[in-house]
């Protein structure tokens, strides 16, 4: 029987799931994903996690608990330190596997090998070999498995750059048809935020889905090629060392530069230091030119859906009014 490896539908799932899945399957594992976020999953995460943690970390706890309940043999929680040269991922990712081990009882073994390519992209080999060793694979076998996973990742990124959202791109990779383009949309809005906030329909109160239903085409930083994101962020006087903050800020500023979006919505999580810095930075640049309407939405476990819906409706009305007013 294959080893069942659980991947929580949280944190960097929206960036790396297709690649991780392929890698683990090539190594001989069977991948099990936690369920879609529900109130129950969030509540269990809040109960297990420390109060001071940000909302996405609390939610990720709930997804890990869901994997424990599903009885998987391993939980895949790579210790994400750095995914790009001279950059870091938020330190909460670094400590996440330890927090989980401390606070969730009955945990199966955790594959928490570090991903750290801050100094050199070749350092990913350590990760590949160590994960492969868990499945009894040689370094060469592990590397071949990872190479196939890398090809899947490249296809996934291309699909995102064609305008698909992560769930849509994953469906295409699974052999389903690509969704129809939003040809009837009369507006284009950029939704900027951490992937685990904007793409999780429960935690984001389905902001993207609601905007689409209201007739808007939605773009996110992940629909831009990396060089476009970097072009956007190159307007800042200093380099951003946080990969996700760089992608969010670069995405917003590039959409502003291109002039192809009618409005920008920044989605931030309560108790997130990087989000407060990034949000302020983006807002300052967008408002300085004053051409594109901007709105910021803060999410926490108590955020009321009605308030978010009202604000989205008001924002859409204002953007449409500005367009007709010329
Ligand atoms: S970047 Fe913010 S939301 Fe993400 S893990 Fe760090 S503190 Fe939490």
From TrEMBL:
<feature type="domain" description="DUF2229">
    <location>
        <begin position="4"/>
        <end position="223"/>
    </location>
</feature>
<dbReference type="InterPro" id="IPR010327">
    <property type="entry name" value="FldB/FldC_alpha/beta"/>
</dbReference>
<dbReference type="InterPro" id="IPR018709">
    <property type="entry name" value="CoA_activase_DUF2229"/>
</dbReference>
<dbReference type="InterPro" id="IPR051805">
    <property type="entry name" value="Dehydratase_Activator_Redct"/>
</dbReference>
<dbReference type="Pfam" id="PF06050">
    <property type="entry name" value="HGD-D"/>
</dbReference>
<protein>
    <recommendedName>
        <fullName>DUF2229 domain-containing protein</fullName>
    </recommendedName>
</protein>
<dbReference type="Pfam" id="PF09989">
    <property type="entry name" value="DUF2229"/>
</dbReference>
């Amino acid at each position: 029987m294959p080893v069942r490896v659980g991947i929580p539908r949280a944190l960097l799932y929206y960036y790396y799931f297709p690649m991780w899945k392929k890698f683990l399957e090539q190594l001989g594992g069977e991948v099990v994903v936690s369920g879609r976020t529900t109130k129950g999953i969030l509540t269990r995460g809040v109960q297990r996690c420390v109060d001071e943690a940000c909302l996405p970390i609390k939610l990720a706890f709930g997804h890990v608990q869901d994997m424990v309940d599903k009885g998987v043999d391993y939980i895949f929680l790579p210790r994400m330190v750095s995914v790009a040269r001279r950059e870091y991922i938020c330190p909460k990712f670094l400590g996440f596997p330890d927090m989980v081990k401390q606070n969730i009882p009955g945990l199966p073994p955790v594959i928490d090998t570090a991903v750290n390519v801050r100094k050199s992209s070749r350092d990913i080999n350590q990760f590949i070999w160590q994960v492969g060793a868990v499945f009894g694979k040689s370094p060469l076998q592990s590397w071949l498995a990872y190479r196939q996973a890398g090809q899947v990742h490249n296809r996934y990124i291309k699909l995102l750059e064609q305008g698909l959202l992560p769930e849509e791109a994953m469906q295409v990779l699974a052999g389903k048809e690509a969704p129809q383009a939003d040809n009837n949309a009369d507006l284009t809005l950029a939704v900027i935020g951490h992937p685990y906030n904007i793409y999780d329909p429960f935690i984001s109160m389905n902001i993207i889905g609601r905007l689409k239903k209201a007739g808007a085409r939605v773009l996110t930083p992940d629909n831009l090629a990396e060089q476009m994101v970097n072009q956007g962020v190159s307007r800042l006087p200093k380099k951003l060392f946080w990969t996700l903050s760089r992608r969010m800020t670069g995405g917003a500023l590039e959409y502003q530069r291109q002039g192809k979006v009618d409005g920008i919505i920044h989605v931030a999580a309560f108790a997130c230091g990087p989000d407060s810095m990034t949000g302020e930075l983006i807002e300052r640049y967008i408002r300085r030119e004053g051409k594109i309407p901007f709105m910021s939405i803060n999410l926490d476990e108590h955020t009321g859906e009605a308030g978010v819906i009202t604000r989205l409706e008001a924002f859409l009305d204002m953007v449409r009014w500005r367009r007709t007013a010329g």
